[in-house]
Amino acid sequence: MEYQARINSIKNSYNRPVREVQIPQKNGGPMYTSEFFGSDVFSFKTLEKRLPKPIYQCFIKQMRGRKVMDKNTSDSVAHAVRIWAMDRGATHFTHWFQPQTGSTAEKHDSFLTLKSNFSSQGHEITPIDAFSGSQLLQAEPDASSFPSGGMRTTFEARGYTVWDTTSPMFVRAGPHGTSVLYIPSIFISYNGDALDEKTVLLRSSEAISKAAIELLELINSPTDEKSAVSHIYTTLGIEQEFFLIDRELYGLRRDLKITGRTLFGCLPPKHQQLEDHYFGKMPTHVLSAISEVELELIKLGVPVKTRHNEVAPAQFEMAPIFENSSIAVDHNLLTMEVLHKVAHRHKLKVLFHEKPFKGINGSGKHCNWSLSTDYGENLLDPTNSPEKNDRFLFFLVAILNAVHVHAGLLRLGVASASNDHRLGANEAPPAIISIFLGKHLTEVLDSIEEDRTIQYFLPHVERIKVGGTAIDVKISSLPEILRDLTDRNRTSPFAFTGNKFEFRAVGSKQSSSFPITLLNAAVASSIQEIVEALKKQKGNNDLLTDEDKLTVLRHYIKKTKPIRFDGDNYSNEWVKEAKVRGLLNLKNSPAAFSQLLEPIHANMLMKNGIFSESEIRSRHNILLEKYVKDLLIEAETFENIVNTQILPVAFEFRKSLAEVINLLGSMSAPESRALEKTTPIVEKLQKLMDTLKENIEKFLKIENLTEQVASTKIYLTSIIETARTEVDKLEEIVPDKLWPMPKYSELLFT
To answer: Domain tally for the chain?
Structure first.
């Protein structure tokens, strides 16, 4: 029966028609994407058109933190956005927020309300559509049922969602032709503690802006027109990797449905070893689904830019244009949600787990991070002569120092039970945090430290600028090819890639908020440290001299040398060298979690106002709780599937072999050998399941959370790894028609 379900699913996948979706039309032809980009977004431009000028100016001042929003302004904005949204079919509104679950949450409220009219004729009820400023500014979801790490108890249920005015509202399609107005929000407790991912991200953005402006004012000349910067933004471009598989086959894999990854499965003879999937032709069905995703995202103002096949079969990637970090995170979460919904329409299932299939590449969320002024200038642009660009050099060494001092914090930011399966494998950076700069920038820093002339060393070039060179490809008909400032090092967890850093270790299913918050905080603290060093060097003088600047630069260039590594981060030699350099090698999540409580990190986070002490402890507890729950769910799912699907099939196979042996007698040599091969595997697997059941019962009796985390390997993961080996042996022996679930060859190539 289960075999037939597999076969029917495979047949259905090949016979399924491709879903057709038409691009928006104008004058009988398709619209340019730029013409309908953001059409479902209540943009600042739209708001400006719908509000009186004085009220709009009041709103802008509030959004920039210069004025508290008054009732008149909030009511005016609420009225304008309600009319705009209802014109687009909206019947409900929701405060859309990011609890500490790695996903988003929403509670829908109707615009419909009842107005009571009292007169001499009696009490009359009139239905009206209304949306007040107070409803726009905040709502009150139940805070007790979201992760709080012990900061809240069940009877302390009050929490608040508060509109994030820096992130535009938008409408999304609902059922039956209706839509819902989404209000991006933060989520806090009754006492004002951050219960979400966004609040701390916004705090870290303010901290880094304040520190960066102080550094610019210190190092810039008073006559420099570019010294009047009022705000610094962290920018972010998030490359989202994911798998797309047939939804019917997914439905037959209980492990995928419950845990997000396959707990069993053998690699097929062909998977990714031919390296033919990466950037290959996208399957028609997948291209159709991703194109529909892009259409929806463009309407929502998400600047999707690229799409392509990733390394593993059935693996793909989408990436946007860079944006302000908090909006980029919102848009990435939207991308994941839209991918999920649209894949469903195309009879596909999107998998965001970091390692859904053992033995092939997992998925990451590469976060390309930089700093920009309020007039759009990238502070990490080295220009053609980085050795003469004081501003670039100071921000560069500040980031080097941040990663050097707080590497453990950055490792913590990407730690999870699911990402443990990916980090350090062939497609992901290892657990040792280091920075790749490339030969050019390394030479720039070395020459400054050693007080010498820069050495130019690229082949076939007499003399070059560090900002890049041309490549002669020896084909006269082709244009000149420009060489980037640096090569790319995809083994590095934190690599400089021209005018930004690529934080490659972030997991594909996690929100980018937490790791980017920690990165922002570390850089803000490092900038503050450099500002103090410059002030001390300047002393009582009015201005910094060039020698003052060089003295501070040389100090931090020398101090941060251990964190710089341009070689192969996957090599065993690097592990040994990193140990000599004194770099942390936190190989698993439990080792990384403790970093949040280390005084050097915790004190920095509290000093900069990113977290309070109670928020830090709650975050630590939430990380531990989620880790334990993830592994316990996997263990219980594993036991259930083996006992109800795998072992019954093995018993049936052994029974059929025994019947043939009994019938054929001495002629049954092949069947006898198959039975002899199968029996010890089945017996061992059955014993392992008995032990796993006992272990789960023992594990559940452990009350202390820290002890539970320490016991996961002893009671859960080790035995699962051993048992999986036995199940995979059975998959290679048991007849295909008996095997109870879709195999890797079907999931990855159907």
So the answer is: 3
Classify 282 as helix, strand or coil: coil
- pTM tops 0.90, yes or no: yes
Enumerate residues 6+ apart whose C-beta is below 8 A from 154: 144
> Does 590 reside within a domain?
yes
**Model confidence pLDDT, tens digit, residues 642-701:** 999 999 999 999 999 999 988 887 777 888 999 999 999 999 999 999 999 999 999 999
Tell me the pLDDT band of 14, cut-offs 50, 70 and 90: confident
Query: CB of 78 within 8 A of CB of 136?
Result: yes
Q: Looking at 582, 611, 640, which one is the last position of a domain? A: 611
The H-or-E segment that residue 433 falls in is: none
Whether residue 43 sits in one domain with residue 136: yes
Q: Using CA atoms, how far apart are residues 575 and 517, in angstroms rounded to an integer?
A: 27
The span from the CA of 186 to the CA of 139, in Å, is 10
What percent of the chain has a predicted confidence (pLDDT) above 90?
71
Could you give the percent of the chain with pLDDT greater than 70? 91
Q: What is the mean pLDDT of residues 193-205?
A: 95
Residue 468 in this model has a pLDDT that exceeds 60: no
Residue 235 banded pLDDT, cuts 50, 70, 90: very high
Question: What pairs with residue 95 in β-bridges?
Answer: 183
In whole angstroms, give the CA distance from residue 566 to residue 421.
25
Of residues 465 and 355, more confidence is placed in 355
Q: The domain containing residue 208 runs over which residues? A: 202-611
Which tokens is 190 given? 């009754």
Is residue 542 domain-resident? yes
**To which residue do tokens 């996690």 refer?**
510
Report residue 158's pLDDT band, with 50, 70 and 90 as the boundaries. Answer: confident
| Strand ranges for 71-229 from DSSP E | 90-96, 108-110, 112-119, 122-129, 138-139, 159-163, 169-173, 179-189
pLDDT band at residue 462, thresholds of 50, 70 and 90? very low
CB 460 within 8 A of CB 400: no
Structure tokens, 534: 């410059």
Identify the pLDDT of residue 298: 97
Please spell the DSSP secondary structure of 487-515, one letter per residue: ---TT-SEEE-SSSEEETTSBTTS-SHHH
* Co-location of 377 and 516 in the same domain: yes
Tokens of 54: 């004085």
Tokens 């615009």, located at residue: 111
| pLDDT, the chain, mean | 90
Residue 306 CA, chain-centre distance (Å), reads: 17
Residue 11 within any structural domain of the chain: no
The answer to whether residues 240 and 129 belong to one domain is no
Return all residues near 228 (Cβ < 8 A) that are at least 6 apart: none
Same domain membership, residue 571 and residue 499: yes
Pair (548, 671) in one structural domain = no
Give yes or no: residues 541 and 661 share one domain.
Answer: no
Does 554 share its domain with 650? no
Confidence of residue 459 (pLDDT cuts 50, 70, 90): very low
Q: Evaluate whether 396 touches 370 at the Cβ level (below 8 Å).
A: no
CATH number at residue 86: 3.10.20.70
CB neighbours of 504 closer than 8 A, spacing ≥ 6? 364, 366, 367, 428, 429, 490, 492, 493, 494, 495
Instruction: Answer yes or no: are the C-beta atoms of 642 and 727 closer than 8 Å.
Output: yes
How does residue 540 score in pLDDT terms, banded at 50, 70 and 90?
confident
Give the Cβ contact number of residue 516 at 10 Å: 27
Q: Which of 611, 638, 663 is the last residue of a domain?
A: 611
Rounded distance between C-alpha atoms, residue 141 and residue 104, angstroms: 13
300 and 396 Cβ atoms separated by less than 8 Å? no
CA pair distance 37, 29, nearest whole angstrom? 17
Q: Are residues 649 and 546 in the same domain?
A: no
pLDDT of 465 reads 41
Rounded to an integer, what distance in angstroms lies between the CA atom of residue 391 and that of residue 154?
51
CATH of the domain at 379: 3.30.590.10
CA distance 514 to 416: 12
